[in-house]
Amino acid sequence: MFAYIKHGDNQQFLINMNCCVFQLLYYIRNKVGLPKTDTIDLCDESGTMKLFFLMKPPGEYAIKFLTARNTYYICRVKRGSPGTRLQNAYLAFVPLLKTPTPELIDALRSQCDMLEKSRLKTLKMQEAAQKVASAESSMKLPSKSGEDRATGKGPFHKTRADFLGKRDRQRVNKITKKQH
After folding, report:
1. pTM for the predicted model, two decimal places
2. Are strands 11-16 and 40-44 parallel, antiparallel or unpaired?
3. Which end of the chain has the smaller Cβ count within 10 Å, N or C?
4. CA–CA separation, 13 and 174 (whole Å)
């Protein structure tokens, strides 16, 4: 099974789809002369991204995701600059074509925007979960003996008054009586 890959100024080549996605992307990078550090993906003629760069097991076979004898375009995935606040942001999906159609660019832009919104939503949910977890852990700290200090349950619960001497307790009692 094979498919067509278009790039540049209407240049194209064939790919064998009966290989893993990782090998396919490696082959495409070498064929077009892209550096290994560039993140690339494929989109079909309508602009639907295949999102191979998000695949957790890159060993999946490309034949599961691509249709035989169809044409696909190479797209560069633009991310934020390393070391900045936007380093993981999806900035753009750029087709490696000399003259891409406006429809293709619009489709890629809308998919990039949706992916970025999804990434931001996931980040906010993770931050909220961390805040809840830290608030819960600061509200209820277990003691060494396993008792709950907030409720005073447990055999060894002592308050500050338990550690005061007889004279100190008398002073505290006098102070509290004067205040009332």
Report:
1. 0.70
2. unpaired
3. C
4. 94
